[in-house]
Structures are given as C-alpha cells and as structure tokens.
Design a protein that fits this description.
The complex is a heterodimer.
Chain A lengths: L5 H9 L4 H5 L3 H7 L3 H33 L5 H23 L1 H7 L3 H5 L2 H12 L4 H28 L12 H16 L9
Helix pairs in contact in A: 1-9, 4-5, 4-8, 4-9, 5-6, 5-8, 8-9, 9-10
Chain B lengths: L1 H13 L10 H6 L4 H24 L9 H23 L1 H7 L10 H9 L6 H31 L1 E2 L2 E2 L9 H4 L1 H18 L12
Helix pairs in contact in B: 1-7, 3-4, 3-6, 3-7, 4-5, 4-6, 6-7, 7-9
Classes of the chains: A mainly alpha, B mainly alpha.
Chain lengths: 196, 205
C-alpha cells in the first residue's frame, strides 16, 4: 500500500490526472455525446455514479476473491462482468422505483458498460495498489473530472456550431483539436497535486 | 481473391478504423509517445482482432442472437488475457510501459465493431483476414502519430537518437495535448487525401 491522502487522490483525479485529458480514457462517448450540455451532464452523472461504485465493488472482488484463489490474471473478464452486471442492476432498480430519473438517465446506462474509463479506473487502482478508501475517492474523482471535461466540451461545441471550420476538420477532427487545447489548459493544474 | 483485395482496401484507408470510423481512440492515444510502444500495442491489437473475429465467425451459427454481445466480450477478454500473460512473460519491461492499456483492449470498440459488423455474417477465413487488416490499419495510424511525437518530442526513433545534439525537444509533443493535436491533424490530412467516395458495395462499417 502506498501512503497518499485519499483527498489528494480525489483532487488529483479531477484536475491533474483527468481521465480524458491525461489518460485518454472514455474518448469514444466523449466525442459522440458531447454535442449538448444537458445530455452530457446526465451522462456524466451516470458515469460518476457507476465509477464510484464499481471501483469499490471491483476492489472487493479482486482482493477478497481473486487474490486468495490466485486468479489475478482473470481480472479483465471478472471486472467486465462485474461492471456489466452492476449497470444492468442499476438500470432495473431505477426503472422500477425512480421513473423520472430513468427517463433522463436510463438510455445512457447501457452505453456506460463499454466506456473505457470504467474499466480503466479499476485497472489503474489495482496497478497503483490503492486501498479501499483511496479507490473510492479515485473512482469518484475520476467521474467528476470526466463530467467536467465533457460538459465543458459540450459548451464549446455549442459555441462553434456557427463557426467556419475547414472542410476536412468538421466533426471529430475539430473536437480532437479542441480537446488538445483543453488538455493544455488542464496541464496548468499539474503543479497543484500530482499522483502517479 | 477479389474479396481479399476489397477487405484489404477497406481496412487500410476506405474504412480505416481510426480516422474513418473514429473507433478505438481511447487506447490508441496513450501509447503513442514511443514508436516501440505503439508497435507492440498495434501487433497485440491485430492478434486480438484477428483471432476474436475468427472465433466469433466459427461459432456464429451456434450463438443465440440475444446473448451474442456477452459471448463476443468473453471471447475478446480471453484473447486479451493470453496477450497480457504473453507480454508479462516475454517482454516484462514493455508490459510495464503499456500498463493498464493492454487490458483496455477489451473495451476497444474496433474489435467489437468488427465482430458485430463483419465476423457475424462472414466465413471464418475472410473474417480472420478482415480482423488482421483492420488491426493493420489501426497500427499504421498509431505508428504515424508515434513517429511524429517521438521524433519531435525526444529527437529519436525507436529509441535511437536521429536528430543531432542541437535539437531542442518539444516537450509538448510527448504530453497529452500533443497526442490530441496529432490525431486531429491525421484525421484532417486523411480526409483531404482520401475524400469519401460513393462506395460501390464496399465493406459496411
């Protein structure tokens, strides 16, 4: 175990080790969904919730089941199954009990299963040997950081809808260039906190 | 034979996974700071895509339609585990460099996309070839991004210094923003070079 204050991990994963800006995770849905502020906010909330809970779940599964049995190499399959099963469960619960929430969030939940950021957080947490609280903070912070990035992106894309963009650069191209500039801005935070 | 040529063209530029379909960018950018890393990542992805396409295609008649996603994910995960163990055993240093990104091949949309769009409806041999070529198209883009990033960022290629002593490293290129700019430029350039043509029965994405 390494000694890092969980709060440091929390802030670092929002700003300096942002999932999109420094680890390139969750790009697929970042490019596809970031066209409207409202939808990206809903997706961000769903991702944050799933990230925070699955990082804890996967932590427990890994250290309580896989390590004692010597099955560490099975972690990819197991993590994917845990994430898929959890997302399915959440979808069923909110469909049954929170109908309004289901209509704003529901369609995004299946998308989340294939979001690289979710699996990425679980794998990072194992590689960096975080403990339970650190993992939770890491998951929560990564989710908030992801939401921050995608909402900011949606705002910028709304502004440039009327702009004249070179022909080949429309769509994904300009989104990536803007992401690059945003990543530059996020680099400015790197002096505050740093985790490896 | 025609089939093979058509698949080849589709994978390399017509339907190139990265710059045409914008798939699999998640894992592709993080490893492009060194040529060697991207080469290993690309070869690994070729292996996983080719063999999972083959497997999906072989068992396509026996897989019930409604659970095929789950089956595909499990097949892909199995090959990724093989790759991970192989890298750990024979290239421990490289395995450490790539870190979690080997495992993240599972969520790389290219593999799932090929399984779903091609292997599901085609014969095993051509599916295997399709997976291989799609992987190759991905590797080519990855390597070209890595080429520029490593050359400008470190002044070296495959770890060998090529730009002389007086070269000032562009630190920006090896940091995350460099990757975003490069891939954006690649998409721009390729859409200029290979403008979208009306495809006559080309492979469907």
């Amino acid at each position: 175990m390494i000694e890092i204050n969980p709060l440091v991990i929390f802030f670092a994963s929002i700003f300096t080790n942002n999932m999109i800006m420094s680890n390139f995770l969750g790009m697929c849905s970042f490019i596809a969904v970031s066209s409207e502020i409202k939808t990206s906010l809903s997706l961000g909330q769903a991702v944050t919730f799933v990230l925070a809970t699955t990082s804890v779940l996967n932590y427990l599964v890994y250290y309580l089941i896989l390590v004692p049995l010597g099955l560490e190499y099975m972690r990819f399959i197991v993590f994917i199954i845990v994430i898929a099963a959890f997302v399915q469960l959440v979808e069923m619960i909110i469909e049954r009990y929170f109908e309004t929430l289901y209509y704003s969030l529901g369609i995004f939940l299946p998308l989340i299963t294939v979001n690289c950021a979710i699996l990425g957080v679980s794998l990072f947490m194992i590689i960096r040997e975080y403990d339970l609280i650190q993992s939770f903070m890491f998951g929560l912070g990564s989710g908030i950081g992801w939401t921050l990035a995608i909402v900011a992106m949606a705002g910028i894309r709304k502004k440039i809808t009327g702009a004249k963009i070179p022909k080949g650069l429309e769509g994904a191209g300009i989104t990536l260039i803007i992401t690059g500039i945003m990543a530059l801005a996020f680099l400015g935070f790197s002096g505050i906190v740093q985790i490896q | 034979m025609n089939e093979i040529i058509r698949v080849f063209k589709a994978g390399i530029y017509k339907d190139n996974p990265v710059f045409r379909q914008i798939l699999g960018i998640c894992s592709s950018l993080a490893v492009t700071n060194f040529l060697a890393n991207s080469f290993v990542m690309g070869v690994g992805l070729m292996f996983v895509t080719a063999f999972s396409s083959l497997t999906v295609s072989v068992i396509r008649q026996f897989t019930p339609k409604h659970i095929r996603m789950m089956v595909q994910t499990l097949i892909i995960s199995a090959y990724v585990i093989i790759l991970d163990i192989f890298l750990k055993a024979y290239f421990p240093a490289m395995s450490k460099n790539l870190g979690p990104y080997v495992g993240l091949i599972i969520t790389n949309c290219i593999i799932m996309g090929r399984a779903e769009a091609f292997a599901q409806n085609n014969k095993p041999f051509i599916s295997f070839f399709d997976g291989l070529i799609m992987g190759l198209g991905y590797t080519l883009v990855l390597m070209s991004v890595a080429f520029v990033r490593e050359l400008l960022g470190f002044g070296s290629l495959f770890g060998i210094q090529v730009l002389g002593e007086n070269w000032v490293n562009w630190t920006l290129m090896i940091m995350p923003p460099g990757a975003f700019f490069m891939i954006g430029i690649v998409i721009w350039v390729t859409s200029k070079w290979f403008p979208k043509e009306e495809e006559k029965g080309g492979a469907k994405a």
